[in-house]
Design goal:
With about 475 residues, the chain is mainly alpha-helical. About 55% of the residues lie in helices and about 5% in strands. The protein folds into 4 domains: about 80 residues, Multidrug-efflux Transporter Regulator, Chain: A, Domain 2, CATH 1.10.1660.10; about 110 residues, Methyltransferase, Methionine Synthase (B12-binding Domains), Chain A, domain 1, CATH 1.10.1240.10; about 130 residues, Rossmann fold, CATH 3.40.50; about 120 residues, Globin-like. It has a 5-stranded parallel beta sheet with strand order 2-1-3-4-5, with helices on both faces. It starts with 12 loop residues before the first helix and ends with a helix.
Amino acid sequence: MFEDYSDEPIYNVKAVATQSGVEASTLRAWERRYGVPQPPRSDSGYRLYSARDTAIIRWLKQQIESGMNISQAVSMLRSIQAGRQTPQHHSNPHHGHTYHNNGIQPLDDLLPHSNGTVKHLEQFDRYVSVAFNCALAFDEAGFEHVLSDAFALYSVEDVCARVIQPLQVMMGDGWHKGTVTISAEHFASNLVRRKLIALMAACPPPTDHRKIVTGCAPEEFHEIGMLMLSLYLRRRGKDVIFLGQAIASNRLGEMLLQTEPRLVLMSASTLRTAANLMDIVDVLSDRRLAPVLFAYGGPIFQRLPALAKRLSGIHISEDVSQAIDQIDAMLNAGESFVQRGGRASTEAKQALNDFRLSRALLAADMMAGMRQQPAFNYDHVALSSEYFANAIESVLRLDAPELLAHPIAWQWQPRPPDGPSVLQLQQHLGILAQAVQQRVPLLSRHIVSQCVAYLIDSVRLNKG
């Protein structure tokens, strides 16, 4: 029942103890008394465990938590492996948490049968559903139990791709629709982050010493995707330095001079943070740095494929296996940093400068104009003004106003009571269009007005 796990001995006892939650002294005691597991030794005499050993240890731990003693659990394991017994249902001391009230089966009942693929897919969906309900209920114990159960039975890659990623999408969609609070979304993200960081810490030392610096673009706070990719790379022996959220570009050069990475890998999920990747490109252009590869990814590039053409560097796939292959190819090809994106025109640079200088006046005009409208809401106007301005500034940096024709590039998705209505957005943009004619210098007025026109058309086409 553990045949899908690798039997290659690569993990030391500390890593396995961290991954499984079973202390190293307990593992050694099980080995001495019951012969489970039976890890081989390295040339230096240290125990080396495989992914299969780790899965078995997690399974044994689950049985003990269900009320068995270790002797009974080992006996059951041997019977199952010999084909003499079918896994049984056992009571669980966590009964009463959201986890059980929502129908997750005990680990024993999740083991593969003849229709294993279908059963696994159904179980992944159930994990996502129950974790979602735990997040809405702020049930930390239940949420942790779901993740622990999933990681005990399936590989890290499977749990990330089939449980964590769909859960993140479900939470994000719920927030956009106003059915999930930002508190619940942050609660779930923080628990997932904690688990992934623990898994990274449990990875063995790198075998490939070409350093990879990973993190999120300036002002980008959605780090789960890059954290998962960093974990996958670490599990494959890469020397990963994960910097986390919202990397500030102003001191990044010092860090890169110190660490001398072969690859810098950044993620972005919005138009604004994608444009902020240009700041990272500027840092990497420092002649003091050794040649370094730059790559980037994130959901915004999947939604707006044309965006990647405006940035320097190498766009990596959203598919994890393809991304890993791309990264390996980049590292092995030995290529230095390659400029791919176009440079902003003189007109766009001038318009960007003029827009920035006019931004405060435009915001004041929008607020004054919207105060005359019915159902005026200061917070809605202030936040949507910021969204509009950030979107315009971003496309001017990229010299690509046409990107604003796509609502996904900029639009604030929540609707009342969480955000402005389509009508309010249209009113707001109408006032902005008039303000541009008065506040933006003549030389740049046309291109900024073009940006606003794209926004107006986008709202009109997306109002349904």
